[in-house]
Write a structure and sequence with these properties.
- The model has no long low-confidence stretch (mean pLDDT about 90).
- The chain is globular and about 40 Å long.
- The chain is about 15% helix and about 25% strand.
- It contains 1 helix and 8 strands.
- The protein is of the alpha+beta class.
């Protein structure tokens, strides 16, 4: 899972293999560049907000006290991924509603449904 401060993303955000030119800010504020082909979450400004799928999140879009809008991504590629991801999304939405009273939105992205508008 990844939790990104949506205000720090230059939309659109794509999940794609890195070219190797993207910038990734670590939590220690060092700038790195994903290896070419490394699956990354890259925005229109060439910033990598997560690397190795969601394994490494960026310090640039880390959720902080001042964050007002969050994109939470869960990923799965196993046989029951669609079912498990949908159940996780429902549980997370309920927990967020109970904790903060907001109205979270969700979408299940697939090969046939590749977009989610914030």
């Amino acid at each position: 899972m990844a939790a990104l401060d949506a205000a720090q993303v230059a939309w659109p955000l794509q999940v794609r293999p890195a070219a190797g030119t993207e910038s990734y800010r670590s939590f220690s504020d060092e700038v790195e560049h994903p290896e070419p082909g490394e699956v990354s979450f890259v925005d229109a400004a060439g910033q990598a907000h997560a690397r190795r799928w969601t394994h490494r999140q960026s310090g640039l879009s880390a959720v902080r006290d001042a964050t007002t809008s969050v994109l939470i991504v869960c990923e799965a590629v196993h046989g029951a991924a669609a079912k498990d991801a949908a159940e996780l999304a429902r549980a997370l939405q309920e927990a967020l509603r109970e904790a903060w009273g907001g109205v979270p939105r969700s979408a299940l992205l697939t090969r046939d449904a590749q977009f989610f508008d914030l």
